[in-house]
Amino acid sequence: MVTLKVAIQKSGxxxxxxxxxxxxxxxxxxxxxxxxxxxxxxxxxxxxxxxDDDIPKYVSDGVADLGIVGENEVLEKQKEVKVIKRLGFAxxxxxxxxPQDDVYSGISWFxxxxxxxxxxxxxxxxxxxxxxxxxxxxxxxxxxxxxxIGLADSIFxxxxxxxxxISNRLKEVEVVCHSEAVIIAGLAxxxxxxxxxxxxxxxxxxxxxxxxxxxxxxxxxxxKLEKIISILPGMKSPTIMPLYEKGWSSLHSxxxxxxxxxxxxxxxxxGAEGILVIPxxxxxx
Length: 285
Ligand code: PRT
Ligand code: ZN
Prior knowledge:
Elements: E1 4-9, H1 15-24, E2 37-39, E3 45-50, H2 55-61, E4 66-70, H3 71-77, E5 81-86, E6 92-99, E7 114-117, H4 120-129, E8 135-138, E9 154-159, H5 163-167, E10 170-179, E11 181-186, H6 191-210, E12 213-221, H7 225-231, E13 239-242, E14 248-256, H8 257-269, E15 273-279
Parallel strand pairs: 1-3, 1-4, 7-8, 7-9
Antiparallel strand pairs: 2-3, 4-11, 5-11, 6-9, 6-10, 12-14, 12-15, 13-14
Bound molecules: phosphoribosyl ATP and zinc ion (ZN).
């Protein structure tokens, strides 16, 4: 298989989880993190460690074939790349925020105002769509202090818990878009590279599917099995095996971690005993 070059963030909010994903795919990288390039002996992959802002460009230029990056950077950079998979981590939103004490009258509040941001393109698109004429002050970091130092009347920035806004006496008034980590790919991958890509995506799908799911084993009297099966939301039909003790069976199935706590009481009420819940490492359907 042809080697695939994957760009991930060198250091920051996405780096650890990106490396975890690669490791969970059973791909071991040759060198420690924080190097410029790492290779793997057991999968045709080369990992490039870059700044997240640069990843869409490197992928569209073909320097890297794939990238793991925040969707916000993809939307902002407007490079020729396609999002091929959402990864379910680094969730955040891009929002407009104004000083806490200002009365917010709706989107027209922004008419004629100065808005500081590191995401001028996304903001510009939003303002145009809403017919707002405002001045965008592009800055590369510490956007949240822009109103306090008199650089702008409001800000447009990433919000996660909202505590940065609160500690800077700002309030979130418009959510413009949501973001999470995604895998992006270049538009012109060779067929050979696509094969490696499919293999890599298959592995990531397998890892993601297993997350949040648990293998459940329990014992139950045979006359209660039907009821217990109707409680279990399982993947397909559960496996039933007879126990040595007559009239009893062992039932095996897969449950979602979140659902487990809401059904465990009902399982017990209906005669389930010796319930075991075991982590699943890989799940292939
Ligand atoms: O050095 P490099 O350029 O690679 O890194 P960076 O500093 O630009 O990015 P980094 O590591 O801060 O973030 C990488 C990606 O993580 C972002 O592009 C988003 O996709 C995602 N992400 C998720 C976040 C946040 N959550 C987040 N909370 N990125 C930044 N923040 C910052 C935000 O800028 C603000 O200052 O956290 C603050 C807000 O957080 P709350 O929780 O106080 O609301
Ligand atoms: Zn960055």
